[in-house]
Amino acid sequence: MSSTVLSPSAKASPSSPEGERKTFLNADYGWKSWLFTVDHKRIAVLYLISIMVFFLIGGTFALLMRAELLTAKGDLFEAETYNKLFTMHGVVMIFFFLVPSIPAVLGNFLVPIMVGTKDLAFPKINLLSWYIYIVGGAATLFVAITGGIDTGWTFYAPYSSTYANTNVAGTAVAVFITGFSSILTGLNFIVTIHKMRAPGMTWFRMPLFLWAQYATSLIMVLGTPVLAITIVLLGLERVFHIGIFDPALGGDPVLFQHLFWFYSHPAVYIMILPGMGVISEIIACFSKKRMFGYHFIAFSSLAIAIFGFVVWGHHMFVSGQSAYASFVFSFLTMLVAIPSAVKVFNWTATLYKGQVSLETPMLYALGFIGLFTIGGLTGVFLAVMGLDRHVHDTYFVVAHFHYVMVGGMVMAFMGGMHFWWSKMFGRKYPEWIAQFSSVVVFVGFNFTFFPQFLLGYMGMPRRYHQYNAEFEVLNVLSSAGASILGTGFLMTICYFIWSLKWGQVAERNPWGAKGLEWERAPSPPPTFNFEDGERIVVTEDAYAYTHEEPHGGSLQEARK
Amino acid sequence: MSDHAHSTVGLAHHFDDLEQQKESGTLGMWAFLITEVLFFGGLFGAYAVYRSSYPDAFMRASAQLDVNLGGINTIVLIVSSLTMALAVYAAQKGSKGGIIAGLVGTWVFGAAFLVVKYFEYKHKWEHHLIPGPNFLFPDAHGVGQHGTPEQLYFALYFAMTGMHAFHMIIGLVILVWMMKKARRGDFTVHNYALVENFGLYWHFVDIVWIFLFPLLYLIGAHSGTPGAPH
Ligand SMILES: [Cu+2]
User: Fold this and answer.
1) pLDDT in tens, A38-78
2) A505 phi and psi, to 5 degrees?
3) C-alpha angle A309/A55/A99, rounded to 5°?
4) Is residue A560 in some structural domain?
5) Of the residues A232, A278, A361, A495, which has the fewest C-beta atoms closer than 10 A?
């Protein structure tokens, strides 16, 4: 582990001759200063741009699917093409958008500032993780362009290893590579949170966002290598036919499912825990209240990370695993509802008698609480073995995980981006348009995915490009909702880009929020995050809001 | 280079002092090794599943390995861990020559391990023991058979020892880089975290082998089946 990074010329002086304050954005110019940067904030911006590209690609696949499903007949795509569409949608959205979204963008930007230090523990490794991500992403795009893959994002053997005629090996390589970017990010966060906290920043003074990132990092570090070795074995089986997942040679395809879900169930928590961290920050700020049950929320993140590793068998109730194993997995899965509910109850208790204001981040956070609750509770339905047999492989499952992944993580990502946008870029997005588009996103989301619960319960199977005519009405509703949802996302991207140039210049703390990133760092922060030479010493707990706090940050006016 | 206790030579810009830098590096290395444990853990898990399914086939297949070569390699690897530990000790004492001697010794024994491994793999190749369409395992009459469960053993044998050898090769590359740094005098009494952390890595790779050796080589040693070592 090299830790001999030498100082990148620290040109950050409080004010340059023209009177313009030096920030991480204008500290240096030119593409080299971005592609070879070791500044965690610049790497966060690199990640932001790249994951948005993959979000648009994955979203396009989704819209094409919804277009096909507009009618009961399979009239737009061949069955094989449709199989490729849902596979590529899953691979891109999970490995290239959801997993890195909040950790690699908001986490990268905020973790060092929130602990009160200059950078992550291993800045070069941080940059390396982005390059690994780009190489893996490029490999995936190459596969997509040269014919795609049709196995579903789960790559189940023996279909993937023996029968599929698409580029399984290429996708396996791409996902294998990308896993390391996630491992390196997790490793960096763990070490930073352990070793780089500013004096006075005790574990129980940390913002809950950090607790969530810490728990997420544990899963990344413990789960991802198992996915890596699973994919190695799959690749060996596919290329050399070594027999390890081939029943004809004595191998066991169900072993692939066990290994795969040992990572991929915890990965669900990689995709939701950081979102929960964001929601905690937003709820506290827009209620202007101390977090209710801080310790419970902090420990529930760790509990979710730990429980997450012992529930993978709930994906395999119909795989032929023993009934006793299914029973235990079912029971443990229901236990996960406890720490999740602890969070939801503490957030709502924080809202109670708070000075609630409904700016865009808060709208997303409230949307998150409602949608995540629906997604989580339907997860408990699915943990019941009897019910799971009925709805297994139907749209009920699709609706469930989209309520958690999109209704949860994407809402949290959107909320977090709006919350910290002015901190990251020093400009404000237009508030009322943003509020409007957050409502569009919420409405579009529910129109898209709520009908799928009904479809699944009625028995419509997932992963088919055509269906019985009786399902058509609900499918039309879902496709219409998808177009509304897509419009909402596009509007958001447009006004965010617009605001970079024409947005109102942001002061240091526009929300009147607590936390080092708001109270001690300018917007946008300089290369080393805080004012020159300022040594951060933390003297109060997180979320030390008082009811008298004036809203609008008049206490700390930004230096122009 | 000064002899002051609070030397900042080699201190990265974002750390407060060398101690914080060293602790961070060490924690990072331990966290990395935990990912490695999980990485190999998947293979050990698959091994456990298939050995419990096909215990006899695993014993017969294991008897095809050369216990002597495996034993020699185990000793070679333990000696390389000793030389690595000596390099760390020399670094603590600030002995530049000691560090270089330790690293060179580690490299030589590590390379010797890989050479032995190469001859073992070559032998498997010549006897059609590479998993795949050309795999042939001798039955009771010495006639080669396709697609027997012994193939699963060899699939795991090559996956596990291959991954282990891959880690050794990476280690050898890093060793060369560290020798250069040592010659330049980059390691001081205050700043030798790299040597120590690489030592952790090397010992880890060594320990993986300590598990692989009995699980792969020794389970068939007393099976007395035909086709035992020559
Ligand atoms: Cu799961």
Assistant:
1) 999 999 999 999 999 999 999 999 999 999 999 999 989 99
2) -65, 135
3) 20
4) no
5) A495
Residue of A nearest to B14 (CA): A118
Q: Kindly state the percentage of chain A with pLDDT values over 70.
A: 94
pLDDT digits (tens, 9 = 90+) for A319-357: 988 999 999 999 999 999 999 999 999 999 999 989 999
**Taking CB atoms and an 8 Å cutoff, what residues of chain A touch B13?**
5-8, 10, 118-119
DSSP characters over A522-544:
-SS--TTSSSTTPPP---S-TT-
Question: CA torsion, points B203, B204, B209, B210, in degrees to nearest 10?
Answer: 70
The domain containing residue A238 runs over which residues?
35-549
Q: Under a CB-based contact definition with an 8 Å cutoff, are residues A177 and A96 in contact?
A: no
3-state secondary structure of A501: helix
Q: According to the model, what pLDDT value does residue B222 have? A: 64
Reported in sequence order, the residue ranges of B19-146 that DSSP labels E, i.e. its strands, are 137-138, 144-145
Q: Is the pLDDT of residue B149 over 80?
A: yes
Judge: B151–A2 Cβ closer than 8 Å, yes or no.
Answer: no
Output the domain CATH number for residue A513.
1.20.210.10
Q: Which residues of B touch A241 (CB under 8 A)?
A: 131-133
For B197, the token pair is: 């952390």
Q: Are B29 and A190 a contacting pair at CB < 8 A? A: no
Sign of CA dihedral B80, B86, B91, B97: negative
A280's tokens: 């905690």
Instruction: Find the CB nearest A5 among B13, B42, B133.
Output: B13
Is A5 inside a domain boundary?
Answer: no
How many CB atoms are located within 10 Å of the residue A229 CB?
Answer: 23
- Of the candidates A159, A131, A155, the residue with the CA atom closest to the CA atom of residue A47: A131
| Residues A498/A501/A502/A503 CA torsion (nearest 10 deg) | 80
Amino acid at A352: Y
Q: What does the block give as tokens for A215?
A: 């728990």
Inter-helix orientation angle A253-270/A294-307, to 10°: 170
CATH classification code of B17-218: 1.20.120.80
pLDDT at B158: 96
Closest Cα in chain A, distance from residue B154 (Å): 9
Number of domains chain A is built from: 1
Structure tokens at A348: 């709502």
In a domain, A386, yes or no: yes
| Integer Cα distance of B134 and B147 in angstroms | 9
What does the CA dihedral A94, A100, A101, A106 come to, rounded to 10 degrees?
Answer: 170
* Cβ atoms of residues A395 and A471 within 8 Å: no
On chain B, the residues whose CB falls within 8 A of the CB of A11 are: none
Sign of CA dihedral A423, A425, A427, A429: negative
Contacts of A122 in chain B (CB under 8 A): 24, 28
B194/A4 Cβ within 8 A: yes
DSSP annotation of A315: G
The CA A148 to ligand 1 mean position distance, Å, reads 26
What does the alpha-carbon distance between residue A12 and residue A28 come to, in Å, rounded to a whole number?
Answer: 10
Q: What are the tokens at B41? A: 């853990």
The minimum CA-CA distance between B71 and chain A, rounded to whole Å, is: 27
> Within an 8 Å CB–CB cutoff, is residue A196 touching chain B?
yes
SS3 A461: strand
pLDDT tens-digit readout, A393-425: 999 999 999 999 999 999 999 999 999 999 999
pLDDT digits 0-9 by tens, A219-238? 999 999 999 999 999 999 99
Q: What is residue A19's predicted lDDT score, i.e. its pLDDT?
A: 58
* Residue A146, in any domain of the structure: yes
The reply to whether omega before A524 is within 30° of 0 (cis) is yes
Give the model confidence (pLDDT) of A288-313 as tens digits: 999 999 999 999 999 999 999 999 99
Nearest beta carbon to residue B39 from set A4, A225, A243: A225
